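Hi everyone, sorry if this is the wrong subforum. Our group has a chain we'd like a structural model of before ordering constructs, and none of us has done structure prediction before. Sequence below.
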Amino acid sequence: WHPMPYLEHGEFYSDFGNFEVNITLPKKYFIAATGELQNDEELQLMKKLGNTAFDKQPNYAILDEDEIETSNSKSKKENFIIKSKLKSETKTLIYKQNNVHDFAWFASDNFLIQYDTCKIKQNIIDCFVFTNRKRVNQSKDKENVIKNTIRNYSNWLGEYPYKTVSVVIGKKGNDDGMEYPTITYINISEKSKNLDDIISH
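Answer:
Right subforum, don't worry. Here is the predicted structure as tokens:
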């Protein structure tokens, strides 16, 4: 282990500690982050959306004003008003996690969410998948990959010690990713068939 991080000379070292992180951002954004979300209203909303079909989840990404003006759709105009209001309002989300060596977070107004739970002995773990709308086909049922991975490694190496786990699927890129405490970021090409393996890794 090397105490100077990210120099590509072997694995970097990070000391373990307890994190409490406050993040203030526009209301239209969802966050995927290390640790347990302390804002119950936001957590329940994410769980509810995570059990809702992708095509029924709201898209808070702001539409271009030119698109609104050239559209005769009343619903698009109404959605633009809602999204514009959300753009001007903020929220502060609080995440806490003890005994981890790092903290990571990702935010988007374009996230689709999947949610399920996984039980390991007496520990109920919240399992989330956050994906970009362009990656819907690649993200389906990935909460099952998370659950299987957690169960397998808990049996092989020791019980998963946290109460949440998340995967964020990026927009595009090579077949790679990066793991952080309780959350993993996956960046894959559109034709990739390795997503399950990368998540497990």
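For your construct planning: The radius of gyration is 18 Å. The first helix runs from residue 40 to 50.
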